[in-house]
Amino acid sequence: MLVMMTENQIITPQQVCPTCLMADQSGQPRWHEGQLRCGRALDRLSDRQPEQFECQMGFRVVHIE
Can you give the pTM of this predicted structure? Predict the structure, then answer.
């Protein structure tokens, strides 16, 4: 599951992505084979931490299993 994080809350992509010009045709993030195509990967602080991305709108995106 993909989630988006701000400084003080966790929100779903369904709340943000439909208004983003970088979203796919269904209003979802461009997620493909473990990579966010509409953002960039962020450095991991530890191996225990899930991989994080920053989308074009500035949200931190995390894939949680």
Answer: 0.81
Structural domain including 51 reads: 2-29+37-63
Q: Say if residues 34 and 63 touch (Cβ distance below 8 Å).
A: yes
Beta strands in 1-65 (DSSP E): 2-5, 10-11, 31-32, 35-36, 39-41, 52-55, 60-63
Rounded CA separation 19/50 (Å): 26
Taking only the tens place, the pLDDT of each residue in 6-15 is 889 999 999 9
Number of domains in the chain: 1
pLDDT digit string, tens, across residues 41-61: 998 878 888 889 999 989 999
